[in-house]
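Predicting holo structure, ribulose-5-phosphate bound.
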Amino acid sequence: MTTRSGGDRGSTARLKRLAATAAAELVEPGMVVGLGSGSTAELVIHELAARVRAGTVLTGVSTSRRSERLARRLGIPLLAPEEAPSIDLAIDGADEVERGTLHLLKGRGGALVREKLVAALARRLVIVVDVSKLVDRLGERTPVPVEVVPFAWIEPARELERLGGKPVLRHTALGQPYRTDNGNLILDVDFGPLDQPEALAREIKLITGVVDHGLFLGLTDTVIVGEPDGVRVLR
Ligand code: 5RP
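Done. Tokens:
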């Protein structure tokens, strides 16, 4: 289903804000909400915090230490995933959204494992993006992030090459190997546009040393897209 509503033209930041505001409106009092990671998801956290300040009862389950710090600072009560009776709704960003399937590529922010766990626990996953994130095929613009344990990471890197990818170990701006919140490394693997993401996802998961990857297939309930003319809802 596709619906449209009005809005102003504007920058990427404006489009992200439109999507974030629309997503926050889906949250009802008393809900347990998965709090995503990345700049768009952080806009949602700000929206939800404003609700909490206005007296709405909400509980968050964060998908990264960064989101946890932000939510805590803004006064959103938090639970660990295993403490939450259930997660009603998770709201998160994405790096690519495949138009036809709503499959996702996530993990540029390095939070993919926690994001996938919270998405799996949630009754509903709502994705918030600006229109630039829509693609015809996953992998068109973004490599597939693969989280690996630090020990002997060269072995999963070689296996990823055997699958046809070009893995690059992610580094911080200071040139140190990037560490996830789980203490692991990330290989950004360029496979080009993906013809069969399901088969690739299965193959990657079978590699020893791989924790998980940024292909989120069949998890999305709704995508809220910020566009110059308003928001578009894809289901
Ligand atoms: C982090 C993610 C983010 O959701 C993704 O990178 C999108 O971020 P942004 O909203 O800043 O574009 O997957 O691991």
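The first helix runs from residue 12 to 24.
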